[in-house]
Amino acid sequence: MTMPFAAAVVSGSILLGTSLLYATLGELVGERAGIVNLGLEGIMLIGAATGFAATFVTGNPYLGIAVAALAGIAANMIFAYIVIGRGANQLAAGLTLMFLGFGASALIGKPYAGAIINGLPQYGGFDTLVWLGAPLAAMLWWLLFRTRWGLALRAVGEDPAAAFAAGKSPSALQYQALAIAGFLGAIGGAHLSVAYALSWDEGMTAGRGFIAIALVIFAKWNPLWAVAGALVFGGADALQLQFQARGADLSPFIMNMIPYLLTLAVLLAWGWNRRSAAPAALGRNFFGVE
Amino acid sequence: MTKLRLLLGACLLLFAALPAQAANTLTVGAIYVGNVNDYGYNQSMHDGLAAMRAALPGVTLLEAENVPETAESERVMEGMIQQGARLIFATSFGHQQFAFNLAKKHPDVYFEHAGGWMQAPNFGNFFGATQAAWYPMGVAAGLMTKSKTLGFVAGVPIGYVVGNINAFALGARSVNPEVQVRVVVTGGWSDKAKEAAATNALIDQGADVVTMHVDSPATVIRVAESHGVYSIGFQSLAAKALAPKGWITGLGFTWGPFMTATAKSVMTGTFKPAMVREGLGQGMLAIAPFGPAVPQTVQAQVKAAADKIASGFNPFTGPIVDNTGVVRIKAGEALGPDKMGNFDWYVAAVIGKVK
Description:
Chain A is mainly α. Chain A is 72% helix and 1% strand. In chain A, strands 1-2 form a two-stranded antiparallel sheet. Chain B folds into 2 domains: 2-129 and 255-278, Rossmann fold (3-Layer(aba) Sandwich); 130-253 and 284-351, 3-Layer(aba) Sandwich (Rossmann fold), CATH 3.40.50. In chain B, the strands form 3 sheets. A 7-stranded mixed beta sheet of chain B has the order 12-10-9-8-6-7-15, sandwiched between helices. Chain B starts with a helix and ends with a strand. The A-B interface holds A 1-3, 8, 11-12, 15-16, 19, 106, 110, 113-114, 116, 119, 122, 192-193, 196-202, 204-206, 208, 237-238, 241-242, 244-247, 249-253, 255-256 and B 34-35, 37-39, 43, 66, 147, 151, 157, 182-187, 190-198, 200-202, 204-208, 216, 218-219, 222-223, 226, 241-242, 351-355.
């Protein structure tokens, strides 16, 4: 029953990378519309808690994921209103959302801690969300780069005043982008609790929301690159755990450093490419045209 | 006159009642580092205190979950003392210094800390002697495995954890000389995604029995169950519920008798600080019920091994060779209970490195 090493690493990377992929894609869409959301970690936690609770209550993991996605949209709409509707600073509002997510998810999940759920069904060793991950990235790429809606959304992220002058509503597009971001971020969190760990704990995302924000930069705001990024970062942990399980002649302390060493290596390699792909108006609020 | 007599009578009654009242009631505070529904360490502590309260009707229990191992824990315990707590159970290792600070500040409040070493007239500590108790778990795993590969998910490879893994491996080898134990270290006591990944990695490498030493066994057992792999639990006896099919058995803490005795000693003013360590058959550890897949013959062998440990058998009796071929315990020598935290090597059956 021993799986070949390479196959085990690849399957481990895909499994660990999936929640990162959904979260990264969500953040990416928001940033394409010019909005940085540092609250992604909080959105993922809300998704993990509501998804787990709803799966337990309904007995249906798909319903659990759906409830998580709706909760993610709702939470991100709070952030959207503060930032778009009231013009608050994006970084401050994002951090606030993160702390709100910590608290809200602890409150929601508390009565269900220790509940026993049956997770998402698996097909060929992978659950449905894994199978949908890459096609979703391709679809988002098509939406962003091959549709008029995507063009308008990216225009808002580059120069909202120009988009406004061209007859687009920057705020409407940003609301839409953040709804997608909340939807996907929460699914990313729910994947951890409902499909992967089959259990819930406070703060169980353990910083993966911030890794996803870094992955957006790594992916150069391109959904297809996000697939590669999620695989590489998921793969770093999968690789070191597989090394340990095989009994590699290396200290476990060094092996637990591998993901961070790899991150450094990737940043070094990436650093040479100075051409920035960041949306020009990223992080700046649009207050209309005088 | 009648009124005065009544008043006097009432006063007398009150005075007569007061000492009796004081001896029968006690407010006990408990802080947990995690959630008490974790099927693990925190649940075992919570269950112990619930047993204490059931045994002593006069006890009021104040509990706080998810108390971090920081100065925050000192504030939580101080709050409990303000609410009248006279006995505090600080149940996580990192709560030790903060509980000790309060013990100095409140000499009339008694403290029991889990797993530490500090002592004061009003400060004692307690823990289970787990290492030898893992031996019968190894016997169970060694008899149930078909692939001769066992998986162990470890949080942090401190000496006590390494000792648990070693005794597990020695037990497995005692019934199955070709068995191997693969170890994966996650680097933390509670990172569910990594625990799931570690379990997957062990199963990928052929493990058909997995066990763990992390705060909550829930993730490892649920992931093993979803792959149709056997599991052995640790920390709370309640973990059996997590694996209706693949559960073999488990090792769980039973703190109730000790906590009850401690509360009684505070009520009667006979509290004595001590460093209490109890193993199988001594009160603080028990073997969980077996799962449906475990044959009677296996159950009998596991019980026999547990009885052997309870009657004083030390699995760390030489000759014992580590997994690089070096003799670590010579023939005729044995490692005593005070050496259980010193392991920095794995026995021959274990695949892995400690450092």
